Structure formats: C-alpha cells, structure tokens
Amino acid sequence: MKKPLIGMLTAVLVAGATALTGAAPAQAASATTATATAATAKVARVAAVPDKAARPLDAVDFSGTVALSNCSGSLVRMPGSVGSDLGLVLTNGHCLETGMPRPGQVIVNQPSSRTFTLLDGSANEVGTLNATKVVYSAMTGTDVTIYQLDSSYDTIQAQTGISPLTVSGDHPVQGTDIRVVSGYWKQIYSCSVDGFAYQLKEADWTFNDSVRYTSGCNVIGGTSGSPVVDANTGLVVAVNNTINENGESCTLDNPCEVDQSGAVTVHQGIGYAQETYIIPACFSAGNTFDLTLPGCTLARP
Questions:
Q1: Is residue 285 domain-shared with residue 270, that is, in the same domain?
Q2: According to a count of CB atoms within 10 Å of the terminal CB, is the N or C end of the chain lower?
C-alpha cells in the first residue's frame, strides 16, 4: 500500500536531501500494534523522485487530476452526472486526512474542508478545489475516498477550463492499455491490466477483485489515489493503491493475492488498483450518494 506522504517534505528539506519518502505516515490507523509499528518504521525508507519528462506521448494527460497534500486524485463525474451537480474528487481510503479507516470501518457524510490542486493537461496548476464533506471512505473490500466539493462541474469548468474525468460503469478488461496519472508527482505511468486478484491482502486489510498491473506501472508513495485511465476510452476504470515492494507476503507495503481456494501468491514489484465500476451504482440523480440503491455493493457502516 503506497502510503500518503505526511510531513515528509519538511524533514527532507532540513536534511538537504534530494529524494522523498514514499512510506506510511506515523498516524496511519491500524487494527494491530504490529501494523502500526511497521508503518512508523517505514517512514525512513526513501524513494527517488520520478522523472517528470518520462511520460508517454499519447491522448491521456493530466487534465482533471488533482494533487492532495499527501496523495493523488481526480475530479470525477458519474455516467449520469450533469454540469449543475456538485463536483466529486476520487482518491484512496488510505489518503483520508483523519487517518486510514480500520478494517470494517466505513465513513459516510463526514464534514471536510480539504483542498485539492487542480491540474490541466500539461500539469499546470489552474485552481484550488474545496471539499465540504467526505461522501464515502473505506478500506474494506476496496480502498476509496470520495469527496463532495462546494462547486459544480459547470462552475469549475468556467473558472479553470477543466472538465471532470468520467468513471466507467463497466468492469475493466484484461489486456487493456492503461495509464496511472499522478497529480502529486505530475507523472504518468504506462502499462496494461495483467489480470485480477480475487482477494488482495495487505496487513489487516482485504480488497476484492483488484486490478493487477503489468510491470510498467512501478508506482511509488504519493501516487496513491491516482486515477487509472483506459488509454483507449479516457474513462476511469480503477484507482491506484498499492505495490509489493520487497517480496514479503501479506504485510504492510507487500500485498499478496489469495485465490478462491485460499492459495497465496506474491508478485514482487507489481502494483495494484481498486476497480471503480462499482461506484456509479451508488449515486442517483444530482450526484446523490445512497448505499441502499439497487446494485450498490460498497461496504456499509
């Protein structure tokens, strides 16, 4: 799980370093003392700053992505959203500003004043988006946080020229050419959907039906919450959330796959994302979130 970068920039500047850590924040919530200790210990690990010029030259760019204080994300709309609806920002559950949700914990309609830096296609900063609440946040079954903004899509476009990305309502397909677009690093990773993990276990958390990347998307800390975009359609098909860093099995920063028979597989150096096709079924007209809607399978409080 590529943890948010909390309070690390200051430490790096003081030390005169030229790299940033990509590890777990000390305040990350955990169900066990062992996991919390491991998360704290990870703060010392260093990840190189990615080369911003190394992105692929194709139709996918940074337009509609956002940078959080510690993660990446995107301004998104559901397939049925209209311009007058209040905007939504999508990122990871473990990027929640109040700390990572515990296994089984589901947060709904929590007030928030978080801000997001909105980017244009060339990764220029074109505005600041303001949240009013956390619509949904969980790390049970998936790893997602959805924020509601104080402005509509029409207002945001009028002020910045930026339109939202659209969340696909269809399950991603194996072999699809994808891009992981990090607003935090202003970096685009290129790879394909290698397959799907029936269950992905990392420390105390379990995610279902996760996207497995091919080796091109070697994501690092700060890429958490990046939209995974279908390079052919431009639709968001998943949200980036983790990678197995050193080959350990089912530990923090080392997710393992568990199949339907219980067999465990480890893919060192391979990243994962959480599918987003399940999200639109939980929104009705007006971007109204409702966990009781038919077809909504997100975990409930």
A1: no
A2: C
Q: Which of 86, 94, 38 is nearest to 241 (CA)?
A: 94
Label residue 247 exposed, middle or buried (CB < 10 Å: 0-12, 13-18, 19+).
exposed
Residues 229/237, Cβ–Cβ less than 8 Å: yes
Is residue 87 within 8 Å of 149, Cβ to Cβ? yes
pTM: predicted TM-score of the whole model, two decimal places: 0.85
> Do 268 and 283 sit in the same domain of this protein?
no
Query: Which of 27, 21, 14 shows the shortest CA–CA distance to 45?
Result: 21
Average pLDDT over residues 32-57: 35
Report how far residue 124's alpha carbon sits from residue 75's, in angstroms, rounded to the nearest whole number: 15
119, 81: one domain = yes
Domain with 140 in it: 63-167+278-289
Tally of domains within the chain: 3
Q: Rounded distance, CA 267 to CA 54, Å?
A: 25
Instruction: For residue 4, count CB atoms less than 10 angstroms from its CB and return exposed for 0-12, middle for 13-18, buried for 19 or more.
Output: buried
Other beta carbons within 10 angstroms of residue 169's beta carbon come to: 16
Neighbours of 144 (CB within 10 A): 27
Query: What CA–CA distance (Å, rounded) separates 287 from 165?
Result: 14
- 234 CB-contact burial (10 Å; exposed 0-12 / middle 13-18 / buried 19+): middle
Integer Cα distance of 3 and 251 in angstroms: 13
